[in-house]
Design a protein that fits this description.
This protein has 259 residues and is an all-alpha fold. 63% of the residues lie in helices and 0% in strands. It is built from 13 helices and no strands.
Length: 259
């Protein structure tokens, strides 16, 4: 992707999000969070691509894919008032939107496939992702999935330390702010759908378990530099099962980072 191509994608994104602003130019808090998240995922996607030694054009494509990955969330929130995936697959709706409108900003048609498939599959369970994706689609998808998880980790850490993540139930209505761990949550490690999470601690376990799913060493290194395993682990209730889980996650993070 050229510099002009990324600028066009960024301008299109800003214009699309502008349609959800109120007359004073503001976004609902949940959509502002999603807008800021998209910017940070774009930055982390580009950072991971650069640390992997990818060419500049690919780094810009990764940044664009990170920027657009959650484009389906904006219309979802307007229609439903939350980010639950029970009734809406925001990846599929975002991919449909880009299939229709990507020509408005893409100068190189060959970039459409990787962008659209990344948006379509970025939030799905790993076992649900088709093996038929083209290699360039699968590689970009893995990179953006890492960047997305990294920023959700960051949001979780900062929100927990600030106010106990009191905004979480407004985004995922089925989750309470209880620090109890639901029966079987440590064993499942969040492998089921997010709709199966019941408490804040269940959510923390799911996020920590993502260290078993990150794809690239730079992703692990970014998470370790941000202190994610220690800071999230400190938010879980003490107990032998919890301590064993946290220890295993820290070991997975260090191994993934090559340490």
């Amino acid at each position: 992707m050229t510099e002009e191509g990324y600028a066009a994608a960024s301008d299109w994104f800003a214009g699309y999000v502008g349609g959800f602003r109120d007359p004073a130019g503001g976004l609902p808090p949940a959509l502002q969070l999603k807008f800021d998240h998209s910017l940070r995922v774009a930055g982390d996607a580009a950072r991971i691509a650069a640390e992997l030694g990818r060419r500049e054009g690919y780094v810009r494509l990764a940044r664009a894919a990170g920027l657009l990955h959650d484009i389906g969330r904006f219309a979802q929130f307007r229609a439903e008032g939350d980010f639950s995936d029970v009734s809406t697959d925001h990846g599929s709706s975002g991919a449909a939107l880009l299939t229709e409108r990507a020509r408005e900003f893409l100068g190189d048609p060959s970039e459409a496939g990787p962008l659209i498939e990344t948006v379509r599959w970025h939030s799905r369970r790993r076992e649900d992702i088709p093996s038929s994706l083209a290699p360039e689609e699968a590689a970009l998808l893995r990179l953006v999935r890492d960047a997305d998880k990294l920023d959700i980790m960051r949001i979780a850490v900062e929100s927990l330390e600030r106010d106990g993540f009191r905004d979480l139930p407004s985004m995922l209505p089925n989750i309470s702010l209880s620090r109890e761990i639901s029966p079987g949550a440590l064993e499942a490690e969040g492998h089921g759908p997010a709709s199966g999470l019941r408490t804040l601690s269940d959510f923390i376990i799911m996020v920590l378990a993502w260290f078993r799913e990150l794809n690239y060493a730079p992703s692990f290194r970014l998470a370790l530099r941000r202190g994610v395993p220690e800071r999230l682990g400190a938010e879980l209730p003490a107990g032998p099962g919890t301590e064993r889980f946290i220890s295993e996650i820290k070991a997975a993070a260090l191994a993934g980072a090559g340490k």
